[in-house]
Specification:
This protein is α+β, with helices and mostly antiparallel strands. The protein is built from eleven helices and twelve strands. It has a five-stranded antiparallel β-sheet with strand order 2-1-5-4-3, with helices on both faces. A five-stranded mixed β-sheet has the order 7-9-10-12-11. Strand 9 and strand 10 form a beta hairpin.
Length: 376
């Protein structure tokens, strides 16, 4: 009887120890799974692409963002990162990371259809001392948009400097000529003064347009929305340019359907849009041509088109005409007095009004700018 009791006690102790070990194992497995889930969640929500490889460069795991860097690859795990990266011309950098014991951080630019700029950080983790032990950890960051914005900023500063310097040089030069004696000749003095006045007006236009852009881009521009009759609005804008059209012998056409078409907008800001589009149409349409403004309600949106029979825009320039100071023909634009900011203002105003603009144009066949806006 005592022997049985001793044996039962032993079994109970073994059972308790086994149960405890099993519980601890389950707890550790649960902790490992939870940790793995957290790590996976963090990795998959990273903007940067992350890949872990063995020392031969074969991908062991990666996050979702990594797939954006190699979108054409259907299979990544198990593949050689060096071969994947060869298309981008960075396979040598991968090899440098895997063969060394120091981190590699560099910026690479390559053209794979579209030019892209990547920041690459790679490091090999130390192993257990055995040959070829450890892992390669690689982080990819897409700098393409950042570098594009930097170029736009640099171009903008350069263009502003150039555009402002031109009228300032004229004003300064002719003012000095007047001081040096040209003022004593009434005919010459008047001619020089007219140039100074024209150039000061041009300088004022550039500054005014820059202030418009600064206000629109700051996010502080307020909207005063109210019902506007499109035909009346267009008629007021045309009234300001009829003399220019008459002088160039350009025929103005208006077609609003229906004539009483109403829409809700900030009239002042929409006047900027229509005035700039109309001004461009008149500038680039030769004598005897036609400029037409039409408006209609289409699928619940107001669609306004400004078309001309002018010189048109080359296909390669269409994607850039809304950039600040971008000119298809710089010499001709300056001759006609444009600031190079009009279409950029148009784009920003329409973004503020939840509108869109598209362009149809062919060299020698004229251009059509189509504005689409919510009707309410």
């Amino acid at each position: 009887m005592q022997e049985n009791t001793w044996f039962d006690d032993l079994l109970d102790e073994i059972y308790i120890q086994v149960s405890r070990s099993h519980a601890e194992k389950l707890l550790k497995e649960s902790e490992v799974k939870e940790l793995a889930a957290r790590s996976e969640a963090v990795l998959d929500h990273m903007v940067e692409g992350v890949a872990v490889t063995d020392t031969k460069g074969h991908v062991l795991l990666h996050n979702k963002s990594f797939c954006r860097f190699f979108p054409d690859e259907t299979r990544i795990v198990g593949e050689s990162l060096g071969l994947l990266a060869k298309k981008a011309g960075i396979d040598d950098l991968i090899e440098e990371v895997l063969s060394g014991n120091h981190p590699v951080h560099t910026e690479v630019t390559y053209s794979g259809g579209l030019s892209k700029t990547w920041s690459l950080l790679g490091i090999r983790t130390p192993g257990d001392g055995a040959p070829r032990s450890g892992y390669g950890i690689f982080l990819f960051y897409d700098l393409t948009e950042m570098r594009r914005l930097e170029r736009v900023r640099k171009d903008f500063v350069a263009n502003v400097s150039h555009e402002i310097r031109t009228p300032l040089t004229s004003i300064s030069g002719f003012a000095e000529a007047l001081m040096d004696g040209a003022i004593d000749d009434p005919k010459t003095a008047r001619s020089f003064l007219e140039i100074i006045v024209n150039q000061s007006h041009r300088l004022n236009s550039i500054v005014t347009d820059l202030l418009h852009l600064a206000t629109l881009e700051s996010g502080k521009a307020s909207l005063i929305m109210k019902p506007v009759e499109l035909a009346t609005q267009v008629d007021r804008i045309l009234e300001a340019v009829r003399s220019v059209a008459k002088e160039k012998n350009i025929f103005l056409e208006v077609e609003i359907d229906p004539p009483s078409l109403m829409y809700e907008t900030d009239e002042g800001k929409m006047n900027l849009v229509l005035s700039n589009l109309l001004d461009n149409a008149l500038k680039y349409t030769p004598a005897g041509g036609t400029v037409r403004i039409s408006g209609q309600l289409l699928s619940g949106r107001i669609e306004i088109a400004v078309s001309d029979s002018g010189i048109g825009i080359p296909k390669e320039d269409l994607s850039r005409i809304f950039e600040r100071f971008y000119r298809v023909d710089r010499a001709r634009s300056r001759e006609l007095g444009g600031t190079g900011l009009g279409l950029s203002i148009v784009k920003h105003v329409l973004e503020l009004l939840r509108g869109e603009i598209r362009v149809k144009s062919h060299p020698g066949e004229g251009s059509m700018f189509i504005v689409s806006l919510p009707s309410k």
